[in-house]
Amino acid sequence: MQGERFFELIHLYLSKKISVKEQVELDSAITNDEKLSVLFKELTKPKNMIVGPLELEEKFGKTMNATRGRDEVNRTVLKISRNAFLKYAAAILIGIFTCSVLYYGISNSYNVDNFSQKIETKNGERKNVTLPDGTHVWLNSASTIAFKKSFGKENRDISLTGEAYFEVSKNQNLPMYINAKELTVKVVGTSFNVRSYPDENRAEASLVEGKIELFINKDQKDSKFLQVIPGEKISVNYDKKLNNQPKNSETSKIPTKDMIIQKSIFLKNNSSDVPAEIAWKENKLVFDKEPFDNIISKLEKWYDVQIEIKNDSLKQHNLSGNMESDHIEDVLELLKSTGIEFKFKKENNLITIY
Amino acid sequence: MEPKGGEIDWVVEKSKIAIAKDATAFKLLFNHFYAPLLGFSLSITGNKEISEDIMADFMVKLWTQPEKLLKINHLKTYLYTSVKNLSLNALEKIKVRHNHLNSLNPEPRDLINPEREFLIKELKNQIEQAIAQLPPKSKMALILIRDNDCSYKEAADIMEVSIKTIDRHLQIAMGKIKENLNL
């Protein structure tokens, strides 16, 4: 077929005024010539802009937010020496604890079933994997990340339960969105850690270096956006009790209907210690003034044991410690040496503290 | 005549938004039109950031002044015309025409590239470039019809020209693409 005639037919096709006879002519030309077939498809079939569901959710939330005036969370500029971060080069850290009963879901358009590709770890297990887009992920115990088949091509949406540390490969056109219950993290930078176990009622985000945006989506009309800068940690408590005050907090507290958002500094420029928030990746358990029951919950996952606390008064204590051991007994002994008094007995996988 | 986007009756949704300030209806509109309008804007500005800003402002305006929706009778035409004007204004302001192809979503690249696949990809690239280099109005007409399911009438309303002019733009587009591809 002559090029001229072919384009005439495409023109007719686009105008929707093509006759049956002309349609047949066009069809046969396409079937017989691959080049024309490609040409036809490129000129007539929609080439749509792809905006992933999480990105759409973010944009919608921002629209609703903008209509309510400025973000109520005033950004606190923290002056922290860059040197403090060099050892964690380009690491962004997010810890997320959420309570499963408070699951509102990101929206109807966000269909978990789409996340067919899954990587899981059991209690006591940790994995290091590479995703299709080249992103490296360290997966902590009892955690799952899930993504779609189209991950890395049409979207970079990840759904997370548990804790994971990400080193995200750069792609300006395809921002990564990590969704953990009602908290979504948009990644503009390169590396970060996400924690979201279903048995805790707190969400945390701590940024070491780079840039992330937090998007807390409680419901459609009430979303919160927070820009996190290096050294900052964002905690979201889903109940009103502030039982676990992060260190150096007080930068801002914003009570909303049933969550409290706190900002604090988790990286100190005068400290050479690896912060608890990223120590796990290096096989270290670090607690810094953490409540006893929080620590116990972490130990259960880390060592794949069940721990029962018979003495409730222990839960009042905040403990610090830095440990690296294959045996839970060592850790418990170390906790005892910090000055609180308890005894424990171990039968198989059950540990009773009294 | 209001077109139906699938099963959605935009006349109804439009009034829900305008009269009741119904957030669910607005979300429906947002989810339905955000990506295509962004794509349309991008075809004009050639810069994703600028188009995203345009969309953000436009959507906020739409939600804060929903009463405007009452005055219009054709939602799709209104949305596209608004975004077209905003995008053209932005383009006028920056006076910098970024390289369109750089800001377009890149085709996912296969690592394994048999010769045939490679040739097809080459051809697709050539076509994409030929379209990018079309005169702005011809390009807009083609984009509206190809990507946005617009009828001649809708495209004409959005571009604020006659149906005959739309047909002429398409004809020019076809001629230029043919020329560009040496067919």
UniProtKB/TrEMBL annotation, chain A:
Domain annotation Protein FecR C-terminal: ranges: 284-353
This protein's UniProt keywords: Membrane, Transmembrane, Transmembrane helix
Source taxon at top rank: Bacteria
InterPro entries in UniProt: FecR (IPR006860), FecR_C (IPR032508), Ferrdict_sens_TM (IPR012373)
Ranges of residues in domain FecR protein: 118-213
Transmembrane segments: 85-106
Transmembrane among keywords: yes
Stated name of the protein: FecR family protein
Species lineage: Bacteria, Pseudomonadati, Bacteroidota, Sphingobacteriia, Sphingobacteriales
TrEMBL record, chain B:
Endpoints of the signal sequence: none
Sorted UniProt keywords: Sigma factor, Transcription, Transcription regulation
InterPro entries recorded: RNA_pol_sigma-70-like (IPR039425), RNA_pol_sigma-70_dom (IPR014284), RNA_pol_sigma70_bacteroid (IPR014327), RNA_pol_sigma70_r2 (IPR007627), RNA_pol_sigma70_r4_t2 (IPR013249), RNA_pol_sigma_r2 (IPR013325), RNA_pol_sigma_r3/r4-like (IPR013324), WH-like_DNA-bd_sf (IPR036388)
Alphabetized Gene3D superfamilies for the sequence: 1.10.1740.10, Winged helix-like DNA-binding domain superfamily/Winged helix DNA-binding domain (1.10.10.10)
Domain (RNA polymerase sigma-70 region) ranges: 29-93
Domain RNA polymerase sigma factor 70 region 4 type: 125-174
Keyword presence, Isomerase: no
Family that this chain belongs to: Belongs to the sigma-70 factor family. ECF subfamily.
Name the UniProt record assigns to this protein: RNA polymerase sigma-70 factor
Organism annotation: Sphingobacterium tenebrionis
